[in-house]
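Aim 2 progress. For Reverse transcriptase domain-containing protein, the working sequence is reproduced below.
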Amino acid sequence: MLYVGRWLKAPVEMPDGTIQKREAGTPQGGVVSPLLANLFLHYAFDAWMRRTFPSIPFERYADEAICHCRTRQEAEHLKAALEKRFADCHLTLHPQKTQVVYCRDSNRRGTHPQIHFTFLGFTFQPRRAKNRWGKLFTRFLPAVGPQALKRMRERIRSWRLPQHAPLPLTDIARILNPILQGRWQYCGRGSCSRTLTNVSECGSGGSTSRSKGTGDGACGG
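Predicted structure tokens for this construct:
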């Protein structure tokens, strides 16, 4: 606890060299911040959800979470309860990122102002798909989100592949394969693989269309 206290109270050096004292929270991007957030949210959110809303499944990674509700009324009730719970724990839900989202597909055709969300780099939205008989229908599916795609394109362009042309292909592959394999293992699932194929065009100066995000019928924070 001594070292945790020191970390929380340590001042932050700003880009201009000035030192800023901190009164609350942990520094954005700090190496121990995710660990402290997980420890705190385990009690503030995970244990509380299982105790207070045992019938609502949820997933949480660090400070991002998705709660799967059956109806809009249930989602709105949960959102209000979460706001009170976090206020009791001296926390505030992000007003733009905490919202009720409708999982629209061929079976759920209702209207709702919000039908998409992004979670851990994936954008969930209604997408066209084919069933086993080749018939088109709408499913609520993930794909790599716009911001994640932008970061991938920037990373690929930063490699300046044309400048490596004098190198043997085996040397280029040895350098790039670990990065590409990691991206594929994380992002290359189902419909996401088609998006990654488009991203690869950026390495040769190609352009790709950006899919617009849409989402999940739950309460995501």
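The first strand starts at residue 12 and ends at 13. This observation will guide construct design in the next reporting period.
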